[in-house]
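Box S2. Input/output pair 1.
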Amino acid sequence: MFLFMAKRLLFIVLVLSFTRFNVWAQQDVSFSIQAHEDDWQLFMSSQIVTDLSASGKVVFITLTAGDAGNGDGAYSGGNPFYLSREMGSVYSAKFAADITSGATPSPVPTATIATVNGHNITKYVYGNTVSYFLRLPDGDFDGNGFPITGHKSLQKLKQGNITSITSVENSATYTGWSDLTNTIQQIILNEKGTDNQVWMYTASLDNNANPGDHSDHLYAAHAGQDAVSAMLWVGISEFVDYATSSMPANLNATQHENAAAIFMLSEWGITEKEYSSSFVTDHKAWLPMDYFAVKRTPVGNAPFTIIGEENKVANKLTAIPMIVSITYPVYTNKDISMFLIPYEKGLLETVVYDENGNSLYNLHTAIDSKEGKQINLGKIFTQKGKYVLTNTLNGKYIETRKITVQ
């Protein structure tokens, strides 16, 4: 049975006689939700590098300023402390992108402002990484907060002890826990692209697996998981934080080296502004291991969204996500056909590429009706492997899918 989009949305369903497809979105996306600017580097770097190495996109959402009670001020000779930590996180993301992409490194990205759910949020984009910094007050280890920021914290917002929380530099105020979680949810919707299923990484909320963790770590995890509680197409992996220092090392030599370099670059952000480095014994003890458990695997598909102007693909075509029947596997030397309902009449170009970007098949089809149309592609797959199928309508709209052929 085919699934259909709302009227006037182009969609493509791949059909194979007596066989089943395994279809993915164009780019796998994962979201790292953390409290402080160096959390993902210390506790989940191997997973981040794995995702980027697979050409995935990683979105970092850092909720607090990690200001350690300094608010937007400085206690050394350089930038405000939180800005130094923030820049260190950007350095880390850049390095992780550089070592996994094979592309020539570009300059360090500059900050932009993204308006999400009515809030101005600092955003950096580099390669396949996107970093959002909400800059909310550091809540201290116990969640009681610091005097300079009114003793506010994520914990108090979640528990209802405060009704709002404002970023340390007064750029945004969140009026309640739901305002914060709705903002995280919108970031996920904005950044998922055409990925039908995504992953979220947070600190573990299992006190037996992750005892003695920082309040901000735990309540950042609560915020992320609450944001996607009804979005079952978001899988959740929970990482152990502080408790890993007493657990056996489980990273190989390369993963450990990457973790050390990634964390050291986050420290460079603060040392270059004359703050003391945290690349010391207690922090280095977290680097040889990453421990996590899958709390929820993704099910179902993400909702459809027309990607906005700021997210148009490089060739300026508007990417339109499609409902695709999730069937598997695709076999070689079997007839394959597409069934589509067009966004508008015109000319459809269908191209199949191999993993190296070589065009293997090209077909032009006149679309003379907005009714459903079936197009036979024949036996286009003669070898096993991964392929990309793109459909471009009138040089304006594009839909891209990955297909594994067995």
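Box S3. Input/output pair 2.
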Amino acid sequence: MKNKEIKILLSAPRGFCAGVERAIEIVEKSIQKFGAPVYVRHEIVHNKYVVDDLKNKGAIFVEELEEIEDKSRPVIFSAHGVPKKIPEDAKNYNMTYIDATCPLVSKVHREAENLHKAGYHLILIGHQNHPEVVGTMGQLPNGSIDLIQNEDEARKYKTKNLDKISYVTQTTLSVDDTREIVKILKERFPNIKEPMKEDICYATTNRQMAVKNIAKKCDLFFVIGSRNSSNSVRLVEVAKKSGCLNSLLIHSQSEIPYELIEKSKTIGISSGASAPEILVNNFINNLKKRFTVSIDEVEAIKENVVFRIPKKLN
């Protein structure tokens, strides 16, 4: 029997962004320079394959600095950013630390600090307990920044400081959802100060745009990425909202739903900003074993962003 034919629309850009590439390179270069082990506070990026690969090369992952037994070894802060207290703690321990915070997250940190210094009360639009949100809120004294997660919270939000109020956002949010939250805040607080430049990063925006571009043509849509990766989970939501209700996240424990694929003619594939391309290739190779596959890569925009690594690693 001839294999069923399936058309794959491959979303581009997808996968690694410049901040993720830089963070991984920082860990690899640190191991080369300082030898193993080097410690990493929190998953460097939210992807099991990447984390396991770096463990094999000599990285040890911890959640807090206290867990590090040998404080003479260097520690790297993850791409999501850390509260101000963490580098201070590292200094108190006399630890060498390397900050792999994505420059676009650092930009939000500086923005928040400058607004606070200028007397503004801040709102952060983001997801509670996400490490990036913890890091951004941790740049400012308690009580000077409030978290808003959705439209409902935006409608109910109360603040004493009506005159000087501003907002910043997590870099990996849904562009459309965030726009709705901002709209509500602007209606309620007409003089709210907005960021000089969009906080949602280029990679999040581009990957969402690329998914929107093809989702409505697909019977089934797969996003390769981790469950704790904000930008990957958002891509699934975007695919659903853009016309492909059967959209699923494929993570390290996922079984490939062949019975659903069997019923589909066209499937879309994208991957989150922390998912390596090898995972996309592995997924497609698994499909090729069962189906006759044709692939059409649909590129929405070209990316050429590169971030330099810290001088001390060169």
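Caption for Box S3: The CA atoms of residues 18 and 306 lie 5 Å apart. The radius of gyration is 21 Å.
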